[in-house]
Amino acid sequence: MFDLLVKNANLPDGTRGVDIACAGGTIRAVERGIGAEAARVIDASGRLVTPPFVDPHFHMDAALSLGRPRMNVSGTLLEGIALWGELKRIQTVDEIVERALAYCDIAVSMGIGAVRSHVDTCDDSLTGVQALLEVRGKVRDYLDLQLVAFPQDGVFRDPTAMENTVRALDMGVDVVGGIPHFERSMADGAASVRALCEIAAERGLMVDMHCDESDDPMSRHVETLAYETQRLGLQGRVAGSHLTSMHSMDNYYVSKLIALMAESELRVIPNPLINIMLQGRHDSYPKRRGQTRVRELRDAGMLVGFGSDCVRDPWYSLGRADMLDVAAMGLHVGQLSSREDMRWCFDAVTVNSAAIMGLENYGLSVGCEANFVLLQAPGTIEAIRLRATRLAVVRKGKVIAETPASVTTLSLHHRPAVLDPGA
Ligand code: FE2
């Protein structure tokens, strides 16, 4: 007797028509024609069951704050940072907790099972850190929340940021962050990478830096990040988020850089929705796309995961926690249009991002935690194309969110009466 049995599911690897049986919060069997009884049975009817979506880059302390205290009129990254500075001075722990929990509800409904959120450490009261540590505990049963200590105003540029970043880590924040391109000089940027990587090495932590989120082709802090990763033996534990300056770098330089990054097993986290919106703002025409070199980094063997970055905050007014939207934008901007490339874009918001976060027991194999999502689409490419409805979200073998199928009833002569886009 199982707790949950999903019948006739397709899997992201192309396997079709299997049953998934769950008991005690884990996956017990994945095979055709499981005949056993279960407390609950879901007929997937040949639709896709995927491990949960994973968002490897987000700012939960800012999410859903749109309009408070005012709108970002220019739409630029820099006005967003200035506006966030205004909001930080007035927002309370309770306010951040309330917004973050509301965001987590949306994320779960959209099939997200894990989020890596940066949390600003540039305020002496560490309001955001207090709030998101509380949220991490509150959502633990239904969402894995990993926190990055993020000195938004520059760990050297802000006079107390280093002390506060270390305090945040002492309080239990998981990952060391940074923003070298926002320090006062290239030299300070490089020094910040070195200092923060040393802290991570001493504490046995992972690193995830906002790195070179700029259109300046000379913003080359990723080189230092790769170098320090090797020097300190942090291979596989360091991620470069955004890396947008790579879009504009000299090709000869990049040919050396990518090899160095691959040697360091650097993880790469582009944020397609946000960077297609924010980059190129100083360009007239042609306008640069500003997405890092996703195809080349992937082909060099690096793990690449797409992040959503922002939802209704000082930097981005839109977003709905839809990682399929993120995958679709990354696909378009990166011109990743072959069948293989499109399937890879689905991996970039699921398995790749799970590996970057170091999630354990993730996947659809026997023995994995029974976390998965049933989508109204037969496969991964169709899921991206349709931004497929999350029909059921399962956590530890229990259905925690359900959304009715998106079906349209047509009233046209000589045409089918019901249109199911995901059939
Ligand atoms: Fe970010």
Structural account:
By secondary structure, the protein is an alpha/beta fold. It folds into two domains: 2-51 and 363-409, Roll (Urease, subunit C, domain 1), CATH 2.30.40; 53-357, TIM Barrel. The protein has helices spanning 77-90, 93-109, 127-139, 161-171, 186-203, 221-231, 251-263, 272-278, 294-299, 323-333, 339-348, 351-357, 380-386; strands spanning 2-10, 18-23, 26-31, 38-50, 53-58, 112-120, 144-150, 175-176, 206-211, 238-242, 267-269, 372-375, 390-395, 398-402, 408-409, 418-419. The strands form three sheets. It has a seven-stranded mixed β-sheet, with no helix packed on it. Helix 5 (186-203) links the parallel strand 8 (175-176) and strand 9 (206-211). Helix 5 (186-203) runs parallel beside helix 6. The protein is globular. The protein starts with a strand and ends with a strand. The protein binds fe (ii) ion. Residues 57, 59, 118, 210, 309 line the site of fe (ii) ion. Fe (ii) ion is lined by residues 57, 59, 118, 210, 309.
